[in-house]
Each structure stands twice: as C-alpha cells, then as structure tokens.
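New here. Your pick:
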Amino acid sequence: MKKLIYNVIAIASAALLMSSCESFLDTKNLTQATTDNYPQTADQAKQVVTGIYNPLSLWNANPQMSFLYISQLASDDCLGGGGENDKLMQSEDLLMNNGTNMLLTFWTDTYKGVQRANTAIETLGKCTGYASDDQKNQLLGEAYFLRAFYYYQLASLFENIPLTTSSAATELPQSAPDATWGQIISDLKQAITLMPAKKFGSGWVESGHADKWNAEAMMGRAFLFYTGFYNKTDVTLPDNSKVTKADVVTWIDDCVNNSGYSLVPDYRNLWAYTNRLTVNDYAWTKGKKGVDGKALKFVEDDNAVNPEAMFAIKFSKFADWGTTIGYSNGYALHFGVRGAQDYAKTFPFGQGWGAGPVAPNLWSDWATAEPNDTIRRPGTICNIPNELTNYTYGGWTDYVQETDYYAKKWAPITAKTGNSANPYSSFDAIMYSYTAQATNMQLWNIHDLVLMRFADVLLMQSELKGDVAGINKVRARAKLPAIATYSLAALQNERRWELACEGVRWNDIRRWHIAETALAAQTGQPVYYKGKAETNVTSHNGGGYAARYKATNGFFPIPDTEISLSGGKFKQNAGWGTTASEYAGWK
C-alpha cells in the first residue's frame, strides 16, 4: 500500500505543478512549487480544484475499466457484447475475472482524484485573495464533493478499500464499509454546508463544476445505497454524529424546490439522435412534435445548457491519441454499433466496439409492465428489426451476445452531410465546425455524458418520502397517467424505465436486494453469436449470473498488485481467485 500511496502522491503533485522534494540542505525552494508555497492565491486555488476533476478524463481514456461502464454491463439492462477478444466486456457482464489486474487502471486513476482532493482540503484555506468567502467555500466544497464522489465509486465497486483523508504517505489497512460510507456521507454534508446556493455557471461556480445541488443529489444516491445495501436506518459519521433519512429528505427537498434544475419538456430531447442535423432524417423522429407541441430538438444543440443535467462530463473536438484522448466521449465509442458496415445500415447510430447490447428481457418486461410508454421505451432502445431493416448481424464476424436491441442514450450519432462522396459523418463534428468533415468514429464523439440528472432526484425524493409526487412528475413528462398510491414496486419500475441504460440500475438492484432474481432473468435470452442465433448460455461461465452474484455480492476483485504491495494486509473480496471466477471466453 505504501508504494501505491507514494505513487499517487507523486503523480497528483506533478499534475498540480508541485514537487515534494526539497534540497538536502532543507533550504526554501524558490524554483519549484510545493505544498508549502502552492497554492497561495485564489487563482492557484482554482487550478488545484480543476485538477481534482482530471480522473473524469482519465476514465474516458479507458472507459472499459470504470465503475460506470461496469454498472451498465453488470446490470440486467445490458449484456457484455464486443468481439471474441473483448473478454473484459463479457467478464464484467458475467461478474467474472479477466486478468490479474483487470481494474488496476481505474483503482489508480480514482485514487489520484482522492489524493488531489485531500491536498486541496488541506491547503485551500491558506490561500489569500479570494473575492469573498463564498468563492473560498465553493472551491473547498467542490473538493469535499469530489472526494465523496470518487469514494462512492471505489466503495461500490470494491467495498473493502483503504480510506485516506490525508495527503501524507502512509500504509493503510482496508477500511470497514461503515467507516468508508460514514466518510462519504460526511464529505457530502460538508460540501452541502460549504457551497453557496448558486447553480453552476453563476456566482463563483465554474461552468461544468459541481454545485451545492449536486452534493444534495449525491447525498440521496449515497444514503439510499448504503442504508439499503447494508440494511441500516442512518449513517454514523467519523465524529459519531448521525445523518438520518429526515436529514436527507430535507436536502433532497431543497434540491427539488430551490436548485433551478428542471425536467426537459420532452424526454427524447435529452438524447443526441434529436440533434438538428439528424432529427428530420431519422424515421422515428421525423416530423414528430414533443409533448410541449414544439419540434423535437436535442437540448445540447447550439451549445445550449441542459436544465436537467446536474453533473456531466463534457468533451471537445480536440481529442488526440496522445495525452488528450479523454477529451472525447470514450463511452460512446465503446457502446457504438459493432460492425464494419455502411453507415446507411445503422443510421442514425454511429459505430464502435459493440459493448452493452440491450438485454431482450428489458424490452419485453417494459412492454408488459408499461405498454403505453411509447415515448421512453423506443426513445431508449432501438428495436433493430423494426428500425434498422438493412442491419447486418455479426459485425466483423465475431460479435458476442449481440441482440435485436440497441441502447440509444450513450450511442454515437451520425448525420447526413449532403456530400455524395461522404454521405454520413459524426454529427458532433459537423455541429461544431458547420462543415461536412470525414468521420473519425473514435475521437469525434463529444456529446455530454450525464452522470446525474434531475429526474433521478425526483424519483429519489419519492422513494425517501414514500409518496408519488416525484414519480408523477416524471410520468407526466412521458404522457403516462399518474399513480394514485406509492409502492416500492411502482418506484422500482419507474426507476428502471426512466433511467434505463444510464448506469444507475446496477446499484439499484443491489440495494433493493433483488439482484440475483433480476440477473437470472438474462439466462436463456435470445442472442446472436457470430451472427447466428443462440441463447444466452452462461452455465459454463461461473455457473451463471445468479451464482456469480451470490458468490461476490456484486463486488469486483481488488487488483492483485495492490494485495501484493500491502504485504498481506489486504484480503481479496469473496468470490474471486477461484476457477469459477476466471473467464476463459464465450465458447
């Protein structure tokens, strides 16, 4: 563990333009920035906080190793997909292992963010020149929020993790879950207390950064997972005080009533296929009006602000295969249609690696439970035989777990260019340059990746309060009738449909203790292997979904490197290190 902590500090310090070394004479270093002399000013404090966001970019360079990606594949929304050599995708879907350190990159990158947050929390109060206390508190609150955000993902993925709140290098044991989640909730409480009631882009809140309302929303998500998964009623913080459900309800109500965030009038406008260059060429959206009577239009068109997106990763067209690959939306690339076929066959969906084909049971369950949900279901899932009639199955002849259903929300999108030599291109590239350029399917996906949206907060509000107010606001947007009486089953269904294929479902089914049953429904579903129909065979892969969940409780393996570095202090999570946990391939 010591080596890991030292490496993290060295990398984080370099990114913050600091060097931890002084001369052997212990003289004051006048040429390098250290934690003794940096940051000192408000501008330097802003630089330090900006650096804490860097792991979001690192995750995009390697999305297949991230918690968000795993949450998509491991849930009952999607299967693994990819080609025969994309064993990591399939192993994450099946809760199996692929290599001794399959998630080391995510572990290391995320601890970089933790360490940067620790450094900021220790140093920002020493800076001078803030325009106001609000500015100082906003920056400090962001550091607390991000530390909680990173620990939420680490604890959800690995459970037994080292918990450090200091920039000092030290050997650390694995923390008990109660202590880790107590720190997460404590950090979110501190962020809520510190940050002024200003939405991002106003006051001292930088556009694209977290604000007070993000912290309140994240508090709801963290509280519901911890108390549900571990069967707790409240959370004990490091100072032995408690956060109760009543506290969280107060914060969530504040977020709903005072944040200024709101639902986009039409659900379809949240997703890139309604962009102005594509919407009237895509048969499913052509000529359609939104529920507000206006033409469908992607909320990000013309760089507009999405009023529903509370926390999102933003991208640019300046991605490069060097150090800036994370500037592009790597998730869109991975979840693009697999197969080197004409774009006309997949229009308006762009191409990629074929991760996360939609599980057929999601489509059928939805149709049975909510048959009149004619906006959200086809707005979320492409029924390939109905929509893409010329689609070729078996892309690159090696597609594994392909289905008749494709997730639209994170998909890369194309547009017709009107150029006969280049009839299709990435809509993002055209949008931001206003010219029909050659398509770069790997680096030109730059639509936002939304990590928290206001609809989620409304549904959390209903769940915490046991009422239908939030549920019915979400249903009204989908032109569905109101629910008269609250029930957990109704809430669970509403979250499943509204938030499908957004990486939220995984922690939901875990905290509701329905994961084994939900995952087992994927067994025997119709899929294609190399373009030929078969069933989703899993019995030879660790005994199947339910067996693997029962063995692991949904936690993934701690990287072997970290266990070795701990000198035996770290113990591997249950269900790993056995023959049954090793994924050898689909066949």
